[in-house]
Amino acid sequence: MTTAAGATPVASPSEPPRHPLDPDPVRATKARAVFALGLMGALTGLLVGGVVPATVALLLARQARREAYASGGFLTGAAWLRRGESLAWTGLTLVAVTVIAMVVVGVIRLAEVPYGHDYAPNVD
């Protein structure tokens, strides 16, 4: 292949030609934040503290998806978003399981407590 002066590079058949002023595709920074918050939510889910980072991760993922759609394909990181969202839902599930288990244990302990006053046998 010879190149002549002023010739434009030939694009591969699988890729549409890009305009020279188009920005380069970059990974969305919110995608990394969603993954990190989702991971923190999943790791601290059993301690009930995971509800905060998991909720923030889900809200941030919604914003990141909106921005990626509006960018027309120049913001990448959909895989990081999916992983972060699944980790955030895992963290919220662990929080729900922990809260339900604590409520069940509390109800069982409350049921074991005798009802009313427990007087001595010689009291009427």
UniProtKB/TrEMBL annotation:
Keywords: Membrane, Transmembrane, Transmembrane helix. The chain crosses the membrane at residues 33-61, 87-111. Residues 1-25 are annotated as: Disordered. Residues 16-25 have a biased composition (Basic and acidic residues). This is Uncharacterized protein.
